[in-house]
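Batch 3, record 17
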Amino acid sequence: MASAKETYRTELRAAARQLGERCLYSAAKWAAELLVGVDLDTSPAPSSAMDSPSSSSAVSAGRLLHLHRSGGSSFRHRFRPGGASSSEAGTPLGGVSYVSTPIPDDDSFDSGGDKYLLAKTYFDCREYRRAAHVLQNQVGRKAVFLRCYALYMAGEKRKEAEMIEMEGSLGKSNAVNQELVALERELSTHRRTGSIDSFGLYLYGLVLRDKGCEDLARTILVESVNSYPWNWSAWSELQSLCTSSDVLNNLNLKNHWMKDFFLASTYLELKMHEEALKRYERLMGIFRSSGYIQAQIATVQYSMRDLDEAEMIFEELLRTDPFRVDSMDIYSNLLYAKESLTALSFLAHRVFLTDKYRPESCCIIANYYSLKGQHEKSVLYFQRALKLNRKYLSAWTLMGHEYVELKNTPAAIDAYRRAVDINPKDYRAWYGLGQIYEMMGMPFYALYYFRKSSYLQPNDARLWIAMAQCYESDPLQMIEEAIKCYERAANSNDTEGIALHQLAKLHDVLGQSEEAAYYYKKDLERMEAEERQGQNFVEALLFLAKHYKNIGNFEEAGHYCTRLLDYTGPEKETAKNMLQGIKRLQSGFPSMDIDHFAL
Amino acid sequence: MSLFAGVGGGAAAGEPASAGGTGRALLELTPHKLAVCHLVQVFAPPAQAGGDVVPPSPFESVAHHNRLGLFLFTLTRSCDDFREPSLEELLRQLKAVDDLTNGCLCEQLTSTLSVLISPDDLFNFFDKLRGVLTAPEGAGAEDILLDPNSQLGVFLRCCILAFNSMTFEGICHLLADLVMYCNSTDTSYDLAEDEDFDTEMNNLMDADISSQADIFEKYRQGRESESHMGESSSALTRAPMILHDLDEANTFKVDEDNPTSLRSRWQLEAYLNQQADLLEKDPSSVPLNSFNATMTQLQTLAPELHRVQFLQYLNALCHDDYIASLDNLHRYFDYSAGMQGLFGRSVSAVQDVIVGKYEGALLCLGNLHCHFGHPKKALEAFSEAVRVSQMNNDDSCLAYVLGAISNLLAKIGMSNTVGIVSSPYSLGTNIGLGTPLSIQQQLLVLLKRSLKRADLLKLPSLLAFDHLSLAKFDLKNVQRPLVSFGPNASTKLRTCPADVCKNLRLSSRVLSDFGTDALSTSSENGSFSTSWLRNLATASDSRRSGSMRSTKLHNDFDNFHYLGQPSPIPSPVLQLAGSSYLLRATAWEHYGSAPMVRMNALIYATCFADAASSSELSLAYVKLIQQLAVFKGYSAAFCALKLAERKFPSSASSHIQLLRMQILHERALHRGHLKVAQQICDEFGVLSSSVCGVDIELKIEASVRRARTLLAAKQFSQAAAVANSLFSTCYKYNLQVENASVLLLLAEIHKKSDNVVLGLPYALASQSFCKSFNLDLLEASATLTLAELWLALGSSHAKRALSLVYQSLPMILGHGGLELRARAHIVLAKCHLSDPKFSVTEDSEAVLDPLNQATEDLRVLEYHEMAAEAYYLKAIAYNHQCKLEEREEAAACFREHITALENPRKEEDSLAY
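Prediction for the assembled complex:
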């Protein structure tokens, strides 16, 4: 085990150095963080921690089977993903080992070594064109990569500048990276002749993605990560191109341990929370003190509405890494949801001091203002966040919420719509759009949006209830459709119990008392289980008492009447009267009681 | 001496308003604008103190000078594309204008532009431009050649202003663009990869026209030539792909070696309006995908121009793509919040407080559902629109919604609202109708309300629309007072043609009133300039490559003077005015005046073709061809049909398709080709939708034709069953006018099946229906049937029958078709022959004349059955006169027709024409 960890460390160490040398900063940062995150204690880790997510039998079977040595490097890894989640795409089965990948030798510093050094320093100082110029006529792979990368960065920088410069009255013009065509030509030639390394492939993938050739980009990126798996930037580019689980399943990826990181994060993106959590927990066993994994787990748990657990992790994370800004926007969302104002203000203050020009920081501050009820300021900070990153999805949605609070419906609709156009799968924004239109008294129009959102998130009771309420609303009065929606909601774990109550009511309205009684009973059971009482409880009891009396089941009716006697209010009197009536009926007296008729 | 003074006054007032919201420069400077600026300078050189000659130096005559001025004027206003033309294109157009000076203007232009290489050059360029607008010291204001308030003056000022407010970065961009702009002429213009598809296309390509709009024309021509060759279906599937390729080639070309510079916002909107008109006029001419590609490209260039999404919605709608149209509709309204002016197609004045106008979205949504045949959903959307627009006090929208609801109610047959409108509440209380009313009553109430609102709010277009709908309503419905008390309430149960006429006339007032409507503010949409430029290309084209006129859906007078000015009336108004003529034709069809039908349809086809949508225009053609078939026989009708099919090449033109089937069916019935008739009947059945209430007219026509086919096959009981069920359907949907003809059909069936006594009540009922709906021609036909029925009861009733025939003759001879006339003549002869008091020998002409007339008419119609009858009667008459030779001749003819009827040969010929 320790040796396996040692191998990880060796690999990551080399990777961080190699990536850094190629000026792939964020990938290098990621690798280095992970390197530090590898569990430090050399004593054998308790295996229970590792086995927890997977069934132990599968693991032990795996251990038995896993005896052969992989070619290339000699390390092997005993803890593969377990059999529990083996149905997922590309997950190695219980007995399949990770494919190990040899760490490539770096180009030794040849004649051009000095020039490369110079170019790298230029690059570090963000003088991209100069860096590219220095490396002209260098043929080493490393030099070629850095030159191309510098050109790409120069083009990107120019593009950003042009975006601002060319802003016309009809919106931004489509500024493009001018270097793309030349870069594509050069890199594709290199690829044809085979003189391209995995970093070059990564860059080629970037260029292709920017040109809009997504399929080819995906292929190239897969090639890149298969030959050099430690480049996290390549993985995350690949992830951004995996828009559905079908695409993900069709990727031809080698079973490197880095793939687990990729899969987990992609699952999170595709809202397959269970799978993501499983994978992260397994990885956690090895990279015990990795902040990245902790943050991701917290994010998953937040998405699964497990707020307390997520909060604990975030707190822990902040304790060990107080100047962290990454993923802190999620933490602020969580604090917002829990309405813990002080913690949020503390967080906002901290990130503000760390780096106020990060979209995450702006978002946290905006959340803080929103919780304080100062929605104008909140909008201002969301706008700043969006200025820093136009594609910041959750900021658009949250800004939509703020505009709703400000009663600025057109702006809210615009914000939500932009979120939807960035990611058509963002069911929250669709839901927000529906809510706005419903608020404006356009339930029929809102239905379109609710349909969209419930299509994307079919197991969310809230969405079905919203749709049902539209159908049920006064102008539409489409009771049958409403019942269908409530049924869906009741079947998909409706925590607030609105659906059952409404179902019972609507069936009652339609005169279907059998169905109504069925749902009232279910609702009663639910409320009893949750030990909740209130008006709904009384209503259910009253209906059931009447219903059973009407169909002649006096015993049941009496039972419900007696329970009603526990409550104060007019229902108590009604119940008393009813009980008397039932007694008379049961004793065989002819029913002449006026009270009885009055019921 | 200011030329073009005040020409663009309106535009000058309009443009700042449209750009006012953003607070940015009015237009963005592009190399193309620089070129135009230079030309303006040439056109109106800075005034020099002292001698200035008219015309200025490079021009040879005043006409020449004016020609350039007109060219520049149109350049600033044309909207045939969203991109600005390349330098090459500009030079070509300039050459066409500037024949006389041997292209010296072109050389001057290129040389001027190519020396602009540093920011300072640009400063000097604009400095010089300023001289055009300001008089030098010591000279009076009248020395300036160009009025600063004219179109060109405003343009120049905008350019100068834009340059002055430009940042240094902007100037750098402009310079870079300018270099590319100038270089684009050097690259040889070739589209070699497209050369393989069509020779005609190739010729056109060589004739080097490259603007996007022209491609549509070329495409149309290309496609026509293809459909001449044969299978139109394959041509249809292939053609859009060709255009798509072509489009793609073009866009890539532009992307790679030409900076894509957008036109000014005003021009863009005009372009979009034009495309919308095109979509409405003839959706089949706009291929779905390539149009979408164009729109997407435009959207990437101008993300804040949301109207593009509306066009995408229209495009999807026209091509029956439900999902895409729904998505685009919602996207458009989410972004624009209904503020980009739905009714007035121009940007409305900027308001302080933005409140969304989402009721417009609901109106569109309702129309969408209406288009796709979901009446229930459409009604829900409309009633929500009513609610929301009442809530937001949007009266004009409310008026439009009411109009839309009445349109829906009129269009889609509904037996009653219950069950369609889910809650009686939704339509009932909102529109203020307490008690449930029949659909017709609701329709009338809605129409009147809409009319009143439109009148109050001064919406002439809606007013015209409502008048038209009312006319339509009056045509087919007897108006009873909704509430009638006491004995004084009028009980006149007849339709009122005067009302129809009044409404039709009132609807035409839109032609003079449109000025007050927001809809027509788009009258200055640059279409004049666009067509002028296009004609310029065609003119110079035809000079080189001989005459190659395109066959477009245009007014005929355009062919005579193609450089003429198009109509100043905006096309939506023209369309409304035109539909009143179409409705007139329909009304006269009902009332039974053939010449009036012809006349109105002809007016429509000649005067309103420009603005008409292809479906409405094809309807006018259908009416004309139907008249031909009835009055001139089938060969003439088929000739015309062939022409019409060529004019409306797409199979999407359902009117023409139906017409073809109608005529074929009639002919098959007349010829006695029952199998063919049956086959066509089945086709009719397939065409009508299975959804209840939708395309009710088509459904009724299908059943009528089935009953008639069965009747011709002498399967009387089945025919009667079909007709009976048809009657109950018509009754259910309140289609009284159709009932009249169904009743007549029932009478026919009983007459043919020798149940004369049963037939009489039907004929009488039909007659009274016709009376109350003023269906004069149908009434004459019913009277004729009545006469036949009396006659069939025995010779004692001949006198009564004769009087009935005489009663109907004036109408029939005046307006009836060949068949009806022949029938009348035959009945007349029969009456005489069966009248015991009548002697043939004494007055042979009274019998023989009508019979000769009838045989003549029936020969044209190829109506064997009746022709046989006529010859039979003729033979009898000759027999009475003892003219044996003639008798034998008539008998031979009789035999000929009978054999043709009983042994139909070459039945398959009946499907060809």
